[in-house]
Design goal:
Number of helices: 10
Structural class: alpha/beta
Strand order of the largest sheet: 5-4-1-6-7-9-8-10
Number of strands: 10
Radius of gyration: 18 Å
Oligomer: single chain
Shape: globular
């Protein structure tokens, strides 16, 4: 596996994913009872935006992502919440100046808002990335790091003792069979813990494959499924035109967040005038 997220850290797909991840975490924290946050493809947890873009063959991607929001003073509250969290992380790591230097991966997004009753479990298959992740969270309260196939986490970690969980599935999509692997893992997870909240991030590259995945998922599930997508361009020469998130069992209020935030994200992250977004209930909420 050759994928390294460091080259893409802080881009529009990260902003989209982490804004909605934070809204999911905040929604679950409306109740005092703790929950498990399970990250199946956690990465290394922290990314140096300066070194990630080093080399003449690399063009930094963060300026078209977090860079678009970094200096804006009039952000909607939910986007401001996300940017404030990234700023806090950047400053903790010594980032200074008018641009971000250190960007948090999804593990740190969750850790920065973790409450005492909440528990974090991070899985990462790449040994080198897992070692960095383990160093990042060595001694961090209520946190476990596992080097292994994240799809095995559904069997190993579910059902959680808290009886509440948010599972983020965010694979690199290098394998042609990734969508099938996600479906198989969800079958296991929902069998073991049908009331969990499952968030699946995916890239929009080949529209037919994406639509087939969405259709298959909606046909197989009885639980409510909310889908959101952002396309920064419709240019056929751009391979990855956007990304999406499917949320099974979305918590109360999350649909309102999606409805409000998608236009704001589209306006700020658009690559050209053909940018668009959509959201819908693939399986309606009762």
């Amino acid at each position: 596996m050759n994928y390294r997220h460091a080259f893409h850290a802080g881009n529009y797909a990260d902003v989209f994913k982490h804004v909605f991840l934070l809204r999911l975490l905040r929604a679950l924290q409306r109740k005092a009872k703790g929950f498990l946050y399970l990250d199946t493809h956690a990465g290394r947890g922290v990314y140096d935006l300066a070194s990630a873009a080093a080399g003449p063959e690399r063009t930094p991607e963060w300026p078209a992502g977090i860079g678009r929001l970094w200096q804006e003073a009039q952000l909607p509250p939910a986007l401001g919440d996300y940017v404030a969290l990234v700023r806090e992380f950047n400053e903790r790591r010594g980032g200074i100046g008018d641009r971000p230097r250190f960007y948090p991966g999804s593990p740190w997004i969750a850790a920065l808002v973790q409450r005492p009753p909440d528990r974090l479990a991070f899985w990462e298959q790449q040994a080198g990335e897992a070692r960095v992740l383990h160093t990042e969270f060595d001694g961090w309260r209520g946190t476990a790091v596992e080097c292994g196939d994240g799809y095995d986490a559904f069997r190993a970690a579910l059902p959680p003792r808290e009886r509440r969980a948010l599972v983020l599935v965010d694979p690199p999509f290098e394998d042609q069979g990734e969508f099938e692997a996600i479906l198989a893992a969800l079958d296991e997870g929902l069998r073991r813990f049908p009331s969990g909240v499952y968030a699946i991030w995916y890239p929009v590259t080949e529209r037919a494959q994406t639509e087939e995945f969405r259709h298959t998922l909606s046909a197989r599930l009885r639980q409510p499924v909310l889908g959101a997508e952002l396309a920064v361009t419709a240019n056929p020469q751009v391979r990855m035109k956007g990304c999406g998130l499917l949320v099974i069992n979305p918590p109360w209020g999350f649909a309102d967040d999606v409805k409000a935030l998608l236009p704001a994200l589209t306006e700020r992250l658009a690559a050209d005038s053909s940018a668009s977004s959509r959201w819908e209930w693939l399986v309606p909420s009762p």
